[in-house]
Write a structure and sequence with these properties.
With about 270 residues, the chain is an alpha+beta fold. Among the domains are: about 100 residues, no CATH class; about 60 residues, 2-Layer Sandwich (Alpha-Beta Plaits), CATH 3.30.70. It has 11 helices and 6 strands. The longest helix has 19 residues.
């Protein structure tokens, strides 16, 4: 790979990292966690660990030194790390809890009652700010937009929406309906509807591309592969397993990267919904 291509990939990787974590202190904490995890790689993969460590250091050099320095200082002040002389800082339990809070995490449970739910609203123009906030909130809850003012979700959002509705003073303008277990829209089946609304084909292709590049079980997933996986997972609605098509690649990708996530002490947790 040419120097120009490597720099371009590092710039892209930096953008993905910033999109994932937002704050430099969190991104730096995550990179430190990854580099630390390499030290516990079995001896049979020493060469792979060295190459992965080298790749992460190369990426680190592409980040502004002052940014990293300030991020480490902030992490130390917040007790996310403990500084060590002539060695990498050590991440504290508080730092690991911070990573658990900010990282996209695979949900292995996904309890589902087999029903789809529709959220419809008719919020007056004078409360357009509340309407815009509601749309953002529905996306965060994993709802998919069917049409203007109509959103679908496999998880009943009524309990979490109730507080939002009261807080924004929009009672009587939002309705949550149970569509039952055989929901469909027009000629579309439930599976077809879910695939379309949640862009599952595009996500499937992204997972497939990731597996083609980083899915070899004989190699160690480098920092680039980890960040690219998490960027896909961040966009994955993590729908109930029963709703996912048979060709779905998300679970295969997770099984591939799970050993590395375990070494990061950031593996999986059930959805808090």
């Amino acid at each position: 790979m040419s120097v120009h291509s490597r720099r371009a990939r590092n710039r892209e990787l930096l953008i993905l990292t910033e999109d994932l974590f937002g704050r430099s202190v969190d991104a730096t904490l995550f990179l430190l966690s990854y580099i630390t995890a390499l030290s516990v790689i079995p001896s049979t993969k020493t060469r792979a660990a060295f190459q992965a460590h080298l790749a992460s250091e190369t990426f680190l050099k592409s980040v502004n030194y002052e940014v990293i320095k300030n991020a480490l200082t902030t992490a130390w002040k917040r007790r996310f790390i403990v500084k060590r002389r002539h060695a990498l800082p050590t991440i504290t339990q508080q730092g690991r809890r911070r990573l658990q809070e900010i990282m996209p995490v695979y949900d292995p449970v996904r309890t589902w009652d087999g029903r789809l739910h529709a959220v419809t609203y008719d919020i007056p123009e004078k409360k357009h700010k509340a309407r815009d906030l509601l749309r953002t909130y529905l996306r965060r809850l994993g709802c998919a937009k069917l049409q203007e003012s109509v959103w679908l979700t496999p998880y009943n959002p009524i309990d979490v929406l109730r507080d939002f509705i009261l807080e924004k003073d929009i009672e009587g303008t939002v309705i949550v309906s149970d569509l039952g277990k055989d929901a469909s829209v027009g000629d579309e089946t439930m599976e077809g509807l879910i695939v379309r609304l949640y862009n599952l084909e595009e996500l499937h292709d992204r997972y497939k591309t990731w597996l083609d590049i980083f899915g070899d079980p004989r190699t160690l997933i480098q920092y680039e592969g980890l960040v690219r996986y998490l960027s896909i997972l961040n966009d994955d609605p993590q729908l109930p397993f029963a709703l996912l098509p048979k060709w779905w690649n998300g679970d295969r990708a997770y099984k591939t990267i799970k050993p590395l996530l375990s070494k990061l002490s950031i593996d999986s947790r059930p959805r808090s919904y």
